[in-house]
Amino acid sequence: MIRNSEVDELLHSVDCEATYRAIGRGVLDEGSELASYLSDAEPVLNDLIATTRRFADTEVTPVAQEIHRQDLLVPENIITGMADLGLFGASIPEEYGGVGIGNLPMILVTETLSAASLPAAGSLITRPEVLAKALLAGGTEAQKKRILPPVAAGQLMVAVAVTEPDTGSDVANIRCKAVPGEVDGEPGWLISGNKAWCTFSGRANLLALLARTDPDPAAGHRGLSLFVVEKEP
After folding, report:
1. Whole-structure pTM over 0.85, yes or no?
2. What is the CATH number of the domain that holds 203?
3. Residues 116 and 183 grouped into a single domain
4. pLDDT digit string (tens) for 164-206?
């Protein structure tokens, strides 16, 4: 069994990807069901990571500092390149137009992109992941078929609107509220409140927006609902 002290020693002794993989395998071998999956999938997984790393090195890294320092928008060639690689559909099942690579590959792909730039690359695929998992868990079949395919193709970009100015990321105390009402003569929801630090919201077509639908503060997180809000980029 790999103890914490042994892990620390390995991490500080050799800065090598092979070492980190060995540590991971040691942990998985302790009984995790992922152990056999990782072994079987490793050749494909390595190819996926290598392809992602080449893209990050050639398209993201050269412009990352300029984007950060000058507060620029993410260049369209990065967005289209990620769409061509199918990365926006990484967490979306094939039946809805994605590639459905699973949680472990998704984590590794996100990590690889984030090494080049978190805001300009890595975070771009975690936004559709949040929306996709919410829809897959609680959305209607009609919603899944209408929203997920264009998200997977990179045709609809996603941002997540959760954080608020007065509550930070204290999700249970969110004040933005939604009440039933009419929208263009159709039954719907009227949302009012403030959101802050909504990464990629300016470019996004869809917001995964968390709002309070139960006015009782005692309801905490159980009084919240996630809305898919369409917007012009």
Report:
1. no
2. 2.40.110.10
3. no
4. 998 877 888 899 999 999 988 899 999 999 999 898 898 999 9
210 domain-assigned: yes
Residue 179 pairs in a beta bridge with 190
Cβ-count burial of 65 within 10 angstroms (0-12 exposed, 13-18 middle, 19+ buried)? Answer: exposed
For residues 125 and 24, which has the higher predicted lDDT (pLDDT)? 125
What is the domain count for the chain? 2
Strand partners, 192: 177
**Token pair 């300029």: residue:** 66
State the Rg of the chain over Cα.
20
Cα 60 to chain centroid distance, Å, stands at 18
Among residues 73, 105, 126, the one where a domain terminates is 126
Q: Which helix (DSSP H) or strand (DSSP E) does residue 189 occupy?
A: strand 186-192
Q: Answer yes or no: is 27 within a domain.
A: no
Which residues span the domain enclosing 178?
160-230
Q: Who wins on pLDDT, 49 or 212?
A: 212
Cβ atoms 63, 76 nearer than 8 A: no
Q: Is the pLDDT of residue 6 over 60?
A: no
